[in-house]
Fold:
Amino acid sequence: MRTISGAVRAAVCGMALTLMAMPGISAAAEHGGTQHGDHGGMKMGGHDGMSGGHDMKTGERIFSGKVGPWTGEARLIDKKAQMEQSGVSAKTAARFAGERHLMLFLTDPATGKPAAGVAGKVVITGPDQASSSKATLIVMGGHIGVDVVMPTPGEYTFAAEIESGDKKGNASFSYTLK
Ligand SMILES: [Cu+2]
Structure:
């Protein structure tokens, strides 16, 4: 087993994971406009101050292309910068230093609508190549995502595996942190 060093760490919000693991609730989130409520659940898991608006196409686009049968787009949000923009104190924003939020948007090319029922995992490898971590992508309204800690500058690679029923797709992309 590979050791996960401090260089790459994917933080998964346990609360959201629990909620999303229950099919009834995730279905309600898709149809009932309760996405923001679900992100309220994330708040309890420590994402305080994260507004429900992160489902919009915010952040930086780091990938765009085919992911198996879907059209995919990956975006990365700098949480500290987002916090600063939201007007919280510098001290509060500083708590998010090094934290990014990875979002994957998958759409069905036939309908242009978000792909239903997608789940996935992503392996993140840090600049030193020696450390990597595997994280579960959690359903969050219109995207699947996870918080990623990226403390050191350099190139990070992301290898995502997505599935929905018998459909599967892979995407690999990288991001250079300055
Ligand atoms: Cu999200």
The helical segments are 14-20, 23-31, 35-44, 79-85, 90-94. The longest strand covers residues 154-164.
